[in-house]
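Task 17 of the worksheet. Students: predict the tertiary structure of the chain below and write it out as structure tokens. Keep your answer in the requested format; marks are given for formatting as well as content.
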Amino acid sequence: MVKKIITYIALFILGFCFLLPFAIMILGSFKDVQFAQLDPLFWIPDDPTLKNYVYIMRDGLFVRWIFNSVIITVIPVATQMLFCAVLGYIFAKKQFVGRETIFWIFMAVIMIPQQLLIIPKYIMFSDFGWINTYWALIVPELWGIMGVFLVRQFLQSIPNDLEEAAYIDGANDIQIFFKVILPLSVPVVATVGTFSFISNWNDLFQPLIYLTQEKMFPITLGLASMLGKEGNFGVEMAGSAVSFIPTFLIFLFFQRYFTEGIQMSGMK
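Model answer:
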């Protein structure tokens, strides 16, 4: 009994620590306050107002930042879901020379910190004329190695008898993929899409390197620049709350698939 009480207390404290920043963000966005104050509860609004939300929505740059984030997020999400499903199917179900070697070479790339590649990538993208364009953020994210791994692990749990039965019925590889494999892969493909969306929407590092024009900023970089320019606590919290909504909705909508995809892909 005592052990259970201690466990609940520890879980409550951890939950409170995780939820406190979100509470400060949401409640602070409804308070008309410019600077953080010494009072630890200054973020609790005495007279809630939508003034901060109205301010950012009337700001043409803020709307443009949201549009930029949508562009550099939705396109990679769509392509990763398709390409990772195709490549995962190939590596899981098809036999060809060097299959395992090629796959584990792909996996080894994950071991390389992306920060080490940023200078060569910047030079290459500069030669392509991609600096301050969407291409520098979209093209490298068209497919993801971790997504291929998840799909491969998931599909290895699907019996080969299904594929063989489809061959007997006269289906070709394309028909088998779209009519048999892909419908069964909805949980893991949704998981790949969720990971991709959250990663691209919340990415600050790459836009900070490749973008210098304010009109090209995504919401993450725009909020960082707004903090230096505005210095307004309430406005920053309102902007952060708006930025948080899409990732929260995506995770909420795909939560069932997300959990199932993780469990069946071997990541425990």
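Marker's comment: The mean pLDDT is 86. The first helix runs from residue 2 to 28.
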